[in-house]
Every structure is written in structure tokens, then in C-alpha cells.
Write a structure and sequence with these properties.
single chain, 139 residues, mainly beta, Metal Binding Protein, Guanine Nucleotide Exchange Factor, Chain A, three-stranded antiparallel beta sheet, globular, binds zinc ion
Length: 139
């Protein structure tokens, strides 16, 4: 029997750690203004897992900030952005790829809010470029 596939993540200070079993649901770039501000970087990439597959091993310091139907999760100790949750995809958690221990495993497969990409950011891939999200509904 082979070992179960697991996916691990942790924040800078290790106050927040998680292990997910099962395959990620999606991996995506988001160029929207809200994601940009939430992580303080030109573009967000995130990888989603079904909540049923997620084991928060350390989450006491996990903080949540909500605007509308979007919830941003971050470490209250070191401030690292951790993940997002969305009311319209309530059975999933979208981890910032930089939170994952091995981000090489989660290459994004498309861009969302591609029209909002910062002009100086060069991403010379041939991935599909969507004008909005495919999974999450924004009000
Ligand atoms: Zn931390
Ligand atoms: Zn976004």
C-alpha cells in the first residue's frame, strides 16, 4: 500500500500549520484588486482543497477578516497571509500558494480577473485568461 498523498503548509512562525489529504481542487492566479491588497503582492496564486480534506494542525492564532462574502485568513502572530474562504464555495479553502511547503507542486492552470493584471508584471505563459472567477461568485 502506498502512503496517502498529503499537502502541507505553514506560516512564517509555525503558529499555523495544516495538512491536506486528497488532490487539490484547483490552482489559479488571481489579479483582482482585493487579492492584491490582501497579500501585498502584484498577483495572488492560490490552491484550493476541499474542507473535508483539511486538517488544521495548529490554528489557535488564525485570524479572519471579512469583507462581503470573502474571508481572508492570516496568522495573528507573524501576519502571514494564509488562505481565503468564500461563501459561494463554502466547502473549500483556498490556500495562498506561498503558504504551502512545496509550492512547486501547484502550478496555476489559469488566470482570473486577467484584465486587472498590473502592466509591468510579465507572465509569459499560455494559460487561459478569464475576466472573472470561474468558481467563486462575487456579489
Ligand atoms: Zn505565523
Ligand atoms: Zn482575487
Amino acid at each position: 500500500m502506498s502512503a496517502p498523498i498529503t499537502h502541507k503548509g505553514h506560516c512564517r512562525c509555525d503558529s499555523i500549520t495544516m495538512v491536506a489529504s486528497g488532490d487539490p481542487v484547483l490552482s489559479v492566479y488571481c489579479h483582482c484588486d482585493d487579492c492584491r491588497r490582501a497579500i501585498g503582492a502584484p498577483v495572488l496564486s492560490s490552491v484550493a482543497f476541499n474542507k473535508a480534506d483539511i486538517d488544521w494542525q495548529e490554528s489557535k492564532g488564525l485570524k479572519r477578516h471579512t469583507i462581503g462574502t470573502a474571508h481572508r485568513l492570516f496568522c495573528g502572530e507573524c501576519g502571514s497571509p494564509v488562505a481565503q474562504a468564500h461563501d459561494s464555495a463554502a466547502d473549500k479553502t483556498f490556500f495562498n500558494t506561498g503558504f504551502m511547503d512545496d509550492p512547486e507542486r501547484y502550478p496555476p492552470t489559469y488566470h482570473t480577473f486577467a484584465d486587472e493584471q498590473i502592466s509591468w508584471l510579465e507572465l509569459n505563459d499560455t494559460l487561459p485568461r478569464e475576466k472573472a472567477t470561474l468558481l467563486i461568485k462575487r456579489p
